[in-house]
Amino acid sequence: MIGLFGGAFDPPHNGHVALLGQARAALGLDETVVIVAAAPGHKAVETDASVRLRLAEAAFPEETVVLDDHARTIDMLHEHPEWEGAVFLLGADEFAAFPGWKEPEALLELVRLGVATRPGFPQESLDAVLARLDHPDRVAFFDLEPLPIASSELRRRLDEGDDVSALVPAAVWEQIERDGLYGRGGYTGAA
């Protein structure tokens, strides 16, 4: 079974790596594709897509990593019929917002969802989303130990000159330092 893990990865961090590893084990994924959203429709990105792609390749050296130019997941899936039947991975926060995605029911007809939950996340939020779906049986949950990491926080800390090497894969940190990304040395990679 194929797992699809999309995101801005601005920058990729140990929480991303943990989610993918846990999803592989919990959902029995044989293959995974990491999808870097060039211009995600739900948030602004601070770093050029080519830089984020390179960082994702460093963070996930054993995975297929691709760049996606679509702002919405459903549009990407329509362009990749080979991914029909895959499991699209996301966190509980993103799942709570899933009804607001473009064509969520059509998305569930193409793929299943694998949702990472963490201790303390309100179950009633997840149940409320499931109750609104025509195909709640196409959603699988798996537990993830929380790692207190967010890309936005990493960018802020990097901009302040903090050493966040313990929060990102070693190969990502090497590129951040070498290329002066995220305020380290003045180059942000922004287009």
Number of continuous helical runs: 8
Q: What is the H/E string? A: EHEHEHEHHEHEHH
The side-by-side strand order for the widest beta sheet comes to: 3-2-1-4-5-6
**First-to-last CA distance:** 36 Å
Kindly state the number of beta strands.
6
Which residue ranges are poorly predicted, with pLDDT under 50 across at least 5 consecutive positions? 186-191
Give the amount of beta strand, in percent: 15-25%
Rg, Cα atoms, Å: 16 Å
The chain-level structural class is alpha/beta
Overall spatial form: globular
Q: How much helicity do the residues have?
A: 25-40%
Mean pLDDT: 92
* Major β-sheet annotation: 6 strands, parallel
What secondary-structure arrangement, pairings included, does this model have?
Elements: E1 2-7, H1 14-27, E2 31-37, H2 49-59, E3 64-68, H3 73-79, E4 87-91, H4 92-96, H5 104-110, E5 112-117, H6 123-132, E6 139-143, H7 151-159, H8 170-179
Parallel strand pairs: 1-2, 1-4, 2-3, 4-5, 5-6
